[in-house]
């Protein structure tokens, strides 16, 4: 049995002697034993020589540790003796010398939890801790964290401890151990100290670790960590990275600061592309851009006016401009019995499905084989024929599909939709109104309202005239004109106008639209469907704003509904509209959640689940996922509706990072096996959200099994074919962008709205409200990398595209992609792909190569070098 290293007796056993393998080792062992004896000598001079010699031996052996150094191994039996002698020494420099040595010996000899290494370090000389080696410093850091927690609980002084922490952090930062420095500062709750120790060589690695760690921290620590990363990026003029953190924090003050402190116009243009991709409404002022022309050019980028142009550039480059028909997608010619199936092809349900497939496949291309009229055809040609192959409310979706086909092309889109406003069919007018909203999705095209007032004064009060005006004016005026229509008696026209407003103005927080829509919520005569779509549109317009006035209006609307109305499928849209106001805002929802407990029991639980899932969407909060899973585990009576939103909520909360996402998929598969039918129906929807535009093999396998499920509603797959071919493969629905760092609130809101409708597929999507599928337009974005020159003209350069590699915490300059191929821009980026420039001729102004990236010429580049 080995001796207790803390005992003050003995000088080893025969077992210890067996570790001495050579004459050199034996000589070292005898030498160290002599030093131990001399340290206890009454002569101070001998003590000093012995201590310095012992110190030198230990230092040289611990500078790089791959195993326990021999001096530490041979001194192990003497640790207790030296500790006992230390206690008898009078205060002097020699005692501090010995304390330093004991501190290092405690690295391998101290009992767990004693923190003797730290104890003797604080009693020793204030020298360079790094000279004892990296392992020693790491051990000290761990003990510092434990000691800090103990002293905080006892409320004793931490001054001496913080001095040591400063030394440890300085050492780590100089030796490529930034994660360890950050971890220690988080433990001692003094992350501000980091600002003094970052420099140009390590700030990028430090910030990368900070932003990655933030996902796993509880609030408010996560926000504090990102705040520090923002300040560091700002300090070293990495403004694009600082802007991304500002957007993640949803801190508009920080966004303004980035625009204000940067004086490079070209970089500001890149900032505008990042803001535009995030999908928020942002107005520049004189401080952010002093020159009027510059400000106008920057605002134009933020307003997304060139997105259609960039998208079509990509389409032409990869030669997919040719329109596709639904038959091309169905691969109908490959099916057996094609002739016999022909008789049922013209049924209204088949045509409606084809309308959506056609809209999704040709989205943004401006041409298709069903709706757009060839230039040599007369008005009312092929598009009119297809429109009237749909019945009643099907015509609304058919007319609106033209907006999807002409997506982002405002001028051409409004001109082509114009013809539907002359129709006498209210469903066609409703579809045209929705189409106007879809065309303008994500595009801000504002002008002076003064010119409108005189224009409005001369107009008549004919609905058709209002509609024509809507089609011919810019987006700022549209909400005035829409407002004239949303008061009309016909529900379909009102819903078309309201939904169009919600899509066109998502995230804008437009007060004039609120003042027009809010009264509808509290109108006792308004039909439930009009009220439901009004709640959703207000939720989209004020997404993530926590607006109290809108929240109160929706709460009163919910309280005013009769018990019979609360059982209607569309009622679920009212809690959802309320939830969207708090999307991603975590604790801010608590007051509203308390109010929801007073609602009628028919809607109370559903509202609770919806509010919880929206407020914590994209946060990865494990406790909330557990809460939602708890609700899903209950076996309830028929008629309970809250478990569907709870299942969807699991996906909404867990989608934040890869680890939580994988765990959520496993939990959902368990629910699929053991859950009630209403839970099983929600699982495919939740899986779709977790892996949106990212076909994971295990999830595809599960969904493939479900497509043959005995329950017909679980097996709904037809329109899915259209979504698979979305934009002929050029579009993504993923709300995450910028290397999965940023989550677009409007994109997530559009997805969640459509997915909540899927929870009652039969009554909503397979009923007469199929046009809720168009809420997906809010999440549609080209999955491209388009490089442009300093004049914002497309510039083709070679780029390497490969699978992204996580390089957090790695020293040096590790490869960020693997299995790459070299292409010329523009290129498509699949889920999990990352691109990097394959030439040094240009410098990208964005840290992440996604979407529009401005390249400027590298002044140091020389051809052939």
UniProtKB/TrEMBL annotation:
Coiled coil: none annotated. Keywords: Proteasome, Repeat. One of its GO terms (cellular component) is proteasome storage granule. Residues 808-861 form the 26S proteasome non-ATPase regulatory subunit RPN1 C-terminal domain. GO terms for biological process: proteasome-mediated ubiquitin-dependent protein catabolic process; regulation of protein catabolic process. Residues 1-22 are annotated as: Disordered. Residues 32-334 form the RPN1 N-terminal domain. Residues 1-13 have a biased composition (Polar residues). The keyword Nucleus does not apply. The keyword Repeat applies. Belongs to the proteasome subunit S2 family. Component of the 19S regulatory particle (RP/PA700) base subcomplex of the 26S proteasome. The 26S proteasome is composed of a core protease (CP), known as the 20S proteasome, capped at one or both ends by the 19S regulatory particle (RP/PA700). The RP/PA700 complex is composed of at least 17 different subunits in two subcomplexes, the base and the lid, which form the portions proximal and distal to the 20S proteolytic core, respectively. This is 26S proteasome non-ATPase regulatory subunit 2 homolog. The lineage of its organism: Eukaryota, Viridiplantae, Streptophyta, Embryophyta, Tracheophyta.
């Amino acid at each position: 049995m080995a001796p207790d290293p803390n005992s003050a007796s003995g000088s080893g056993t025969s077992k210890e002697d067996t570790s001495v393998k050579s004459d050199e080792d034996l000589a070292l062992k005898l030498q160290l034993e002599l030093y131990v004896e001399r340290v206890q000598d009454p002569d101070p001079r001998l003590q000093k020589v012995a201590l310095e010699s012992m110190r030198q031996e230990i230092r040289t052996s611990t500078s790089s540790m791959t195993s326990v150094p021999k001096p530490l191994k041979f001194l192990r039996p003497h640790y207790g003796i030296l500790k006992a002698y230390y206690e008898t020494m009078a205060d002097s420099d020699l005692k501090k010398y010995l304390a330093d040595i004991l501190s290092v010996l405690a690295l391998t000899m101290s009992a767990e939890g004693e923190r003797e290494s730290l104890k003797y370090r604080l009693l020793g000389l204030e020298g360079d801790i790094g000279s004892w080696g990296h392992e020693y410093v790491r051990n000290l850091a761990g003990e510092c964290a434990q000691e800090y927690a103990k002293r905080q609980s006892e409320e004793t002084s931490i001054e001496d401890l913080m001095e040591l922490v400063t030394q440890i952090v300085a050492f780590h930062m100089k030796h490529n151990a930034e994660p360890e420095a950050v971890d220690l500062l988080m433990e001692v709750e003094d992350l501000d100290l980091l600002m003094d120790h970052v420099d140009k060589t390590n700030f990028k690695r430090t910030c990368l670790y900070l932003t990655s760690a933030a996902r796993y921290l509880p609030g408010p620590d996560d926000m504090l960590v990102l705040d520090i990363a923002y300040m560091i990026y700002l300090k070293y003029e990495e403004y694009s990275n600082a802007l991304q953190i500002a957007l993640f924090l949803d801190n508009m003050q920080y966004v303004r600061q980035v625009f204000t402190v940067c004086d490079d116009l070209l970089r500001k243009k890149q900032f505008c592309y990042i803001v535009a991709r995030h999908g928020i409404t942002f107005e520049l002022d004189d401080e952010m851009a002093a020159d009027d022309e510059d400000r106008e050019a920057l605002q134009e980028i933020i307003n997304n006016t060139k997105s259609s142009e960039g998208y079509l550039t990509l389409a032409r480059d990869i030669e997919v401009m040719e329109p596709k028909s639904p038959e091309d997608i169905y691969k109908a010619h490959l099916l057996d019995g094609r002739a016999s199936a022909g008789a049922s092809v013209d049924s209204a349900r088949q045509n409606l499905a084809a309308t959506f497939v056609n809209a999704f496949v040709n989205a943004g291309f401006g041409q298709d084989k069903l709706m757009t009229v060839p230039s040599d055809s007369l008005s009312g040609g092929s598009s009119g024929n297809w429109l009237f192959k749909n019945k009643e409310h099907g015509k609304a979706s058919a007319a609106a599909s033209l907006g999807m086909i002409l997506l982002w092309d405002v001028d051409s889109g409004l001109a082509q939709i114009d013809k539907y406003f002359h129709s006498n069919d209210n469903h066609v007018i409703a579809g045209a109104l929705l189409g106007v909203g879809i065309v303008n999705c994500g595009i801000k095209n504002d002008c002076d309202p003064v010119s409108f007032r005189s224009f409005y004064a001369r107009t008549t009060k004919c609905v058709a005239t209002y509609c024509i005006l809507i089609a011919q004016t810019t987006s700022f005026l549209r909400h005035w004109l829409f407002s004239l229509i949303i008061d009309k008696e016909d529900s379909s026209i009102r819903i078309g106008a309201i939904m169009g407003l919600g899509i066109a103005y998502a995230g804008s927080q437009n007060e004039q639209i609120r003042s027009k829509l809010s009264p509808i919520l509290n109108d006792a005569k308004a039909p439930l469907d009009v009220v439901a779509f009004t709640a959703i549109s207000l939720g989209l317009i004020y997404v993530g704003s926590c607006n109290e006035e809108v929240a109160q209006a929706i709460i009163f609307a919910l309280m005013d509904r009769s018990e019979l109305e609360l059982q209607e499928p569309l009622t679920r849209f009212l809690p959802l509209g309320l939830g969207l106001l708090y999307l991603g805002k975590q604790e801010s929802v608590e007051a509203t959640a308390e109010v929801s407990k007073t609602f009628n029991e028919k809607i109370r639980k559903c509202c609770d689940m919806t509010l919880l899932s929206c407020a914590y969407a994209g946060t990865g909060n494990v406790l909330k996922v557990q809460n939602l899973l708890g609700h899903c585990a209950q076996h309830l009576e028929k008629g309970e509706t809250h478990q569907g939103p709870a299942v969807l909520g699991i996906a909404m909360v867990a989608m934040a990072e890869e680890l939580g996402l994988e765990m959520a998929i496993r939990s959902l598969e368990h629910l699929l096996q053991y859950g009630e039918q209403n839970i099983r129906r929600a699982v495919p929807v939740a899986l779709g959200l977790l892996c949106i535009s990212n076909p994971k093999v295990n999830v595809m396998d599960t969904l493939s099994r479900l497509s043959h499920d005995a329950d017909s509603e679980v097996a709904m797959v037809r329109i899915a074919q259209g979504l698979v071919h979305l934009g002929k493969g050029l579009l993504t629905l993923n709300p995450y962008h910028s290397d999965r760092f940023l989550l677009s609130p409007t994109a997530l809101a559009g997805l969640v709205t459509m997915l909540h409708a899927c929870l009652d597929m039969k009554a909503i999507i397979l009923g007469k409200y199929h046009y809720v599928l168009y809420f997906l337009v809010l999440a549609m974005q080209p999955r491209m990398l388009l490089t442009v020159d300093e004049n914002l003209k497309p510039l083709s350069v070679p780029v390497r595209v490969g699978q992204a590699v996580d390089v957090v915490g790695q020293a040096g300059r590790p490869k960020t992609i693997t299995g790459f191929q070299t292409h010329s821009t523009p290129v498509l980026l699949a889920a999990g792909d990352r691109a990097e420039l394959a030439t040094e001729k240009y410098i990208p102004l964005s840290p992440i190569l996604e979407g529009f990236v401005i390249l400027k010429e590298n002044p140091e580049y020389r051809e052939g070098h």
